[in-house]
Every structure is written in C-alpha cells, then in structure tokens.
C-alpha cells in the first residue's frame, strides 16, 4: 500500500487495479481538489475587468520563500501567473493573475513585477515562444520547455501533490473549476481536442520548483527508466511508444 500513497489516484486505478484507461476521466481526485481550494479566504486586494482578474492573498514577508510561475497565452488561451509561499507546508497561493488579449511585453511586465515584489524564484513555460519572452522576462526566471517526458513527469508529480494535500489556495473560481474538470486527456494526450488548462499549467510549473524545497508534503517517486506505463501507452502514438521502448532496451543491455 506504500506505492498507492505516492502516485495519483487515476494512475493507480489504471496501472494497479487494471481499470480501463480513459482520456475522459477526471485527472484529479475531486475530494482532493475540494480540499485544496479553501472557500473562506478573501483577497487582500483584487482587480477585475474585461479578460483580467488579479488577486493578492498574502503579502510578501521577510521570512518567506516564494515561487512565481507563468503560463503564457494571448488570444484563445490565457496567461496565468501564480505566486506561492513555499517555505512551509502546505504551500500557499499568495498571488494570482489571469489575463489575455494583451501584448506580451505588458503581460511579461506583470510577471516581472510579481517576481520583484515577492523576491521570488521564478519559472515560465518557454515552449514555442523563444525570444518573444526571453527578451523581456526577468533574468531570475528560467524557462521550461514543456515537451515529452519532461512535461508528463511534471504534471504527474503535480497531480500527486494535489492529491496528497501539498498545496492550499483560496477558491478562485477559474482555478478551482480548471482542476475540478480537468481530464486525463488534457494532461497526457497529444490530440488537439484536449487542452491543458492554463491554471493547471501555471500551478504545476510552480510546484516543479517548490517540490525541491523543504516544505514538501511527502516524497515523489519517479520511475527509474523510460518504460511507458499503461496509462501513457493509451495516449501516445505508437511511434513515440516504440521510441521509448527502444531507449529502454538500450539502457538495459
């Protein structure tokens, strides 16, 4: 039963209880999502306008360690910036910004302001944006290219963290619903019919940094090789799965 405590509930159902994989199943345990998003805290400061929501829940403190994360979007998708206090368990959402239809320099400016205000370590999704972001983003922020195994591992670790109670956030409607109704296919499928929610992406990026800290809720286990799981085989092309298996065979020789 120790194994069950360190992997996401849906992966346990499909991998170990031999349940039928379904890309339509919810990615997060619903009770865990309800527990993560607390109904009670009101924002200390809030600004809302067309395609713009900004909330401050915790002011920066001298003894705090903060992590800022940004998932970029401009037209159909949204930019979501989140800042977390990460030197105590559970990690707490301190700041949240969701916006779209703004120029990238303006949105990046808000990210830089959040980094500066909280003296935060920072990470952002650099997939496909190249110098559009790199020319403007704070030098303290590192880019993370969300592709392949790196992306899958980050999201799996984040789902596990949510289900183990590692994070707490006020019940911001957009973030809460994005987690509540996120499907397995949204996380792992490469099909265009699925989409990783912007809120989930920002929070997962932040956890990628926070998970290295001291205030962890529990250990995260990562597979020691690249053998595709039953869950991954369901969502990946045969060509990609074959490539992973070939790599595994070479490593094991």
Question: Mind explaining what this structure looks like?
Answer:
This protein has 253 residues and is of the alpha/beta class. Helices cover 38% and strands 19% of the residues. Strands 1, 2, 3, 4, 5, 6, 7, 8 and 9 form a nine-stranded mixed β-sheet that branches. Strand 7, helix 4 and strand 8 form a beta-alpha-beta unit. Helix 5 packs across helix 8. The two termini are 31 Å apart.
Produce the secondary structure layout.
Layout: H1 9-15, H2 30-36, E1 37-38, E2 45-49, E3 52-56, E4 66-71, E5 79-85, E6 91-99, H3 104-118, E7 121-125, H4 131-134, E8 141-144, H5 148-163, E9 167-170, H6 173-180, H7 184-188, H8 198-210, H9 230-235, H10 238-252
Helix content: 25-40%
Largest sheet: 9 strands, mixed
Morphology call: globular
Give the count of helical stretches: 10
Beta-strand share of residues: 15-25%
Structural class designation: alpha/beta
Based on CA atoms alone, the radius of gyration comes out at 18 Å
Report, as a whole number of angstroms, the end-to-end distance: 31 Å
Q: What average pLDDT do the residues reach?
A: 81
Uncertain segments are: 12-21, 214-253
- The helix/strand order is HHEEEEEEHEHEHEHHHHH
**Can you count the beta strands?**
9
